[in-house]
């Protein structure tokens, strides 16, 4: 009986050692395989009654602890978000331009506004210089172009983020289906007592793919199936797959936003967008819906303030010679009420700036826009009307004459604008925000239409006198002062309401973006450190060490030789016993 047990024990040792060597050899073969974790053969003693009969491999499992895996999964979500935000912020920083170390030159909006102010002051000293006029208009165009370009870059980044969300959702859905498929194989294999450890590694790799894109919670049930949920408990994989849904918008502009007209991420009918705060998708949503729109708001605030500051001045001025016709940019209706006060002067000038006709209009005396236009139209040498688009058109009847408007102390509308600005008759800049701000097409096509001087506001002005002097650079000076003076800005993006210069506000936008870039880089470094620490700890626990595996195989080979020698000895003993029995 004891020899039979000894033989059984030695034979089981051979089989067990072979299984252990197979596991160790597989570890060595997969040492460089992504997602592979070191496997161990778990041994169980076998018995026959009260006697031990050897050992067997009860299971093959990974050496990775579930708690450490969870730590790596969570760290990968944090890293996924940090990586994408840092990358996009770097691109945004590049789009914002630069300022040289001395703060005086560069490609930023602030430096371009400073350049424009400098050009205007030079023009104010020599207002009759066509070269200086061209420099000023070039500087205006450069600033407007930079605003448009920067705005376009912001929206391009939003569009890219939207597209990247779409790709990330596809990645998550693919990984969810992989987990579901592996669940079936693992549950079936474990029920039949098969080794499913490699399948579990593949499932962990799929889980990692999900966690890099969004933070999830998960657990493995008693049957071996992994259940995956969103961070707020919406099932993604239970008895079936619940895929994410998302519709990419394509090209975005500043007028589209979530949830009004941009897609969120849903699971079935449940919108989970606000619950995805980590992973690449969380970072992309933050960029598309928060960070980048905040910068756009700041750019729009700068653009509209720049237009208001310059147009309020340019609409007090007159070019020389004065234009034959002025067409407003504001859309009005003739029946609109006039909220006016003070006096505005309209004059007809010859090419030398001499007054041919003029009249002052008391803006407080009109009930409607039609009433005001009718009075202007009734002035000698002038025609005034609304065109089909609701724009005021004022023209000199004589094609050799020009129209000039003097602001005087007249104001219209709730913003108390001078009449010319209210109608947009002599705007230097046009547009609604940073995306479409531009130099007036009328001035871009004819630089002589740029208003440098102003119509005389003298109460004793008479026909034949100079209404606009050739050397008058007062409007150029006022434009420069508008740039350097204080402007009141509403709260926008990350910037609070403030009163400062346009250049300083532009610098503030660059500073805000620079701060965001630095913050994103700091968060990325922290996330990388955390992920590396967790990954190295997991690798130390479950990674394959070739030296250790080779040493283990050497030990197993020795043990195998010992077991084989034992079997050989037992066989010899059996032979001797049989010989002894036969000889008796």
Automatic annotation (TrEMBL):
Places the protein is found: Bacterial flagellum basal body; Secreted
Chain ranges of the Flagellar hook-associated protein FlgK helical domain: 105-320
Domain Flagellar basal body rod protein N-terminal: from-to ranges: 10-37
InterPro entries, A to Z: Flag_bb_rod_N, Flagellar_basal_body_rod_CS, FlgK, FlgK_helical
A GO biological process held by the record: bacterial-type flagellum assembly
Signal peptide: none
Stated name of the protein: Flagellar hook-associated protein 1
Organism, as annotated: Insolitispirillum peregrinum
Gene: flgK
């Amino acid at each position: 009986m004891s020899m039979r047990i000894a033989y059984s024990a030695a034979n089981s040792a051979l089989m067990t050692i072979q299984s252990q060597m197979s596991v160790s050899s597989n570890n060595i073969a997969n040492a460089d395989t992504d997602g592979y974790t070191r496997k161990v053969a778990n041994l169980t003693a076998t018995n026959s009654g009260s006697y031990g009969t050897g050992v067997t491999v009860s299971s093959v499992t990974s050496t990775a602890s579930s708690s450490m895996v969870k730590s790596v999964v969570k760290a990968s979500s944090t890293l996924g978000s940090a990586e994408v935000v840092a990358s996009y912020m770097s691109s945004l920083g590049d789009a914002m331009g630069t300022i040289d170390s001395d703060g005086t030159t560069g490609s930023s909006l602030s430096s371009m506004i400073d350049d424009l102010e400098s050009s205007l002051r030079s023009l104010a000293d020599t207002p009759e210089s066509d070269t200086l006029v061209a420099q000023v208009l070039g500087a205006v165009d450069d600033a407007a172009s930079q605003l448009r370009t920067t705005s376009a870059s912001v929206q391009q980044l939003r569009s890219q983020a939207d597209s990247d969300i779409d790709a990330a959702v596809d990645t998550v859905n693919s990984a969810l289906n992989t987990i579901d498929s592996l669940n079936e194989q693992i549950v079936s294999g474990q029920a039949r007592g098969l080794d499913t450890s490699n399948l579990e590694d593949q499932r962990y790799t799929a889980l990692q793919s999900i966690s890099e894109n969004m933070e999830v919670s998960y657990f493995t049930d008693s049957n071996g199936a992994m259940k995956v949920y969103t961070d707020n408990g919406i099932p993604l994989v239970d008895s079936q797959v619940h895929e994410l849904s998302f519709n990419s918008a394509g090209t975005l502009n500043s007028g589209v936003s979530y949830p009004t007209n941009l897609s969120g991420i849903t699971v079935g009918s449940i919108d989970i967008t606000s619950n995805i705060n980590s992973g690449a998708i969380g970072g992309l949503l933050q960029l598309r819906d928060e960070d980048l729109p905040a910068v756009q708001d700041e750019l729009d605030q700068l653009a509209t303030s720049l237009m208001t500051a310059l147009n309020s001045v340019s609409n007090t001025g007159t070019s020389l010679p004065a234009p034959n016709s002025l067409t407003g940019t504001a859309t009005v209706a003739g029946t609109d009420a006039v909220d006016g006060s003070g006096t505005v002067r309209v004059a007809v000038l010859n090419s030398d700036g001499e007054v041919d006709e003029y009249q002052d209009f008391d803006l407080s005396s009109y009930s409607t826009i039609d009433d005001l236009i009718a009075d202007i139209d009734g002035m000698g040498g002038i025609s005034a009307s609304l065109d089909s688009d609701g724009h005021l058109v004022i023209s000199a009847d004589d094609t050799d004459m020009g129209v000039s408007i003097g602001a005087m102390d007249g104001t219209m509308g709730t913003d108390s604008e001078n009449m010319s600005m209210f109608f947009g008759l002599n705007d230097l800049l046009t547009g609604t925000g940073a995306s479409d701000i531009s130099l007036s097409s009328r001035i871009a096509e004819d630089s002589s239409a740029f208003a440098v001087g102003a119509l005389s506001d003298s109460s004793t002005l008479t026909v034949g006198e100079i209404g606009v002097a050739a050397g008058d650079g007062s409007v150029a000076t006022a434009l420069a002062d508008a740039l350097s003076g204080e402007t009141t800005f509403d709260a926008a993006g990350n910037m609070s309401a403030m009163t400062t210069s346009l250049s300083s506000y532009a610098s503030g936008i660059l500073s805000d973006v620079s701060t965001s870039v630095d913050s994103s880089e700091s968060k990325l470094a922290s996330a990388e450190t955390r992920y590396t620490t967790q990954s190295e700890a997991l690798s130390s626990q479950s990674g394959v060490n070739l030296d250790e595996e080779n040493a283990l195989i050497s030990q197993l080979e020795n043990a195998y030789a010992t077991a084989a020698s034992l079997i050989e000895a037992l066989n010899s003993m059996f032979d001797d016993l049989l010989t002894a029995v036969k000889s008796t």
